[in-house]
Amino acid sequence: MFRIWFTLWLLVLSVLPLTENKAQQYTEFRNSVTVKAFGLSVHLKESPYPEIFPNRLDNKGYTTLNFGGIIGYDRFLVRNDISVRVEQGFYADCAASMAGFSHVGFRAKIFRSGRHSVNGGIGPTLVYRHDWNRLEQYIDDGYFKKRGDWQYKFYWYGGEFEYNYQLSAQNDLSLTLIPGIPELISIGIGFRRRY
Hints:
By secondary structure, this protein is mainly beta. It has one helix and nine strands. The chain starts with a helix and ends with a strand.
């Protein structure tokens, strides 16, 4: 599992030039908007029912495509280093069911070198999905709570890691890693615009 993630990061870093364009100066912004395609889910353990994952990339359901998007808004509190982020995701989950998450949290810059930066964030997150109990092979383990036709789980500690590659003074290519520990890791890619 570590090798897959490490290989993905090396691939991203090898495609992007590591030299800083001296014409682009560091500018402080007050806001940013992020739009990302979501994604890819990598399960940390074998699923007991991979047959309900129609978009799985392997027979055991370790890797699954999820089709959807994430939109986020950041309000910078301290330079471009610390912000509050509001984020909303809608996607087809591993079982190709309508799902989503709503998140509010703090973000902080962990690392910056030239055009490269890594941010980390944490905050409360509500994850929800169309009830899997309607799927014949699914056996409810009680992890999600149920309300009507939906299942949901609230986390006080939901978060993400975000790698950004600065394309211009205001625009970044952005890669997100959302650790859904202990179940899975989700990956999204898109753009961030600071203003």
